[in-house]
C-alpha cells in the first residue's frame, strides 16, 4: 500500500485528535508536588501508551506512525509526506529567528510557548543542532534560551546563537571557537564609520528621539528601538523619524571617513537617494517624512557609493531602525555556526519573518540545503519567498505547527 494511503488510513481509522491531546498533556504537564495530580498524569500516560500500541500493532511502520499521529495533525502529516517526496531527506539543523517567529508580542505575550520549547527539546534529543538566529544582543538571547531550553541544552555543544543579525556567533562548549566576533574581521574604514556612529547617535539626536527611542545594547550594529509598544502608532512615528536621522548620521560619518569634498547637505541627500533606491519601504518612509530627495542615484560619487554598498540600513516598521554591515548578516553568521557545529551537509529548517531571515532562506534554496517557513505577518518579500517554495506559512505565535511538520518529516525520512 502506498505511504499516502497508509497515512489516510491512520487519520481516518484512529482518533488522532484525542491522541494528540494526551501527548500534549503528558509532554507539558507542569511540575507539581501533588499526589493527586501525579496520579492523573500517570493515568493519562497509560492511556497514551495504550492508544499508541493500537497503532503500532496495525502498521508495519507502527512506531513511526504512532509518533506522527501523536504530534502532527492530518494536514501537517500530509505536508511532511509532500516534503519527503520532494526532498528525500529530513531536517538536520534548525535555524530559528526569535521575535515574531518563535514568540510574538501580539499572541504569545512575547514568551516562547511551552509546547514550542518542548518540541525544540525533542529535536535536540534526536541529535538535531539548533541555531538561534536573531537581531538581539547576545545577553538577551542567552537569558531566554537558558530559561526556556535549560542550561544543559544551551551548553551541550549542539546549540549556537547568531546574534545582532550576524555580527557575532556564540557556540558554548567549543573552546576557542565558542565566541566569534565577526565584526573584528571588517576592515578599518568600516569599523571607523561604526565607531563614529555609536559615539554620536544619542548625543546628536533631537530631543524627541532621545525621549522616544533607546539604543539597543549591541556590540556592533546601531539599532534604535521605540520607547513605545512595538507595532503601535507612536512606535511607528518615532521609528520613521529615527530612520531619517540614522541615514543622515550615516552620511555624515561616511563623508568624514572618506574625506568627501561634497557638502554635508549634498552628502545627506545622496545617501537618502541611495537607500531609497535600495529599499521601497525606506523610500516610502522618506516620502512620508518629506525627506525624499530629488536626486539621481547616478549622481552619487564612486567613493561614497563604494562605502554605502557595504553598509545596510534596515527598517522594521514600528519596531526598529538599524545600521549594520552587509558583510555581516545572518547568512554569514549561520555559515560560521554550522562550521563550528560540524554540520557539513546541512538540510535546514529556516524560520523567520524579516528581510534578514529571507536572505538565509534564499541561501539554503540556492544550495538545495533546506526549507523555509514564515509567520503570516512576515515581511512581504519573506512571505512571497515562502509561498513560492513550500508554502510553510503559520499563524502568529504558532511556530510549533511547522516544527511538528518537520518532526513528522524526519520520522518519515527514516523509513527511506
Automatic annotation (TrEMBL):
Keywords: Hydrolase. GO terms for molecular function: magnesium ion binding; phosphatase activity. Gene3D superfamilies: 3.30.1240.10, HAD superfamily/HAD-like (3.40.50.1000). It comes from the Archaea. SUPFAM superfamilies: HAD-like (SSF56784). InterPro entries: HAD-like_sf (IPR036412), HAD_sf (IPR023214). The keyword Ubl conjugation does not apply. The keyword Hydrolase applies. One of its GO terms (cellular component) is cytosol. Pfam families: Hydrolase_3. This is Putative HAD superfamily hydrolase. It comes from Natronococcus occultus SP4.
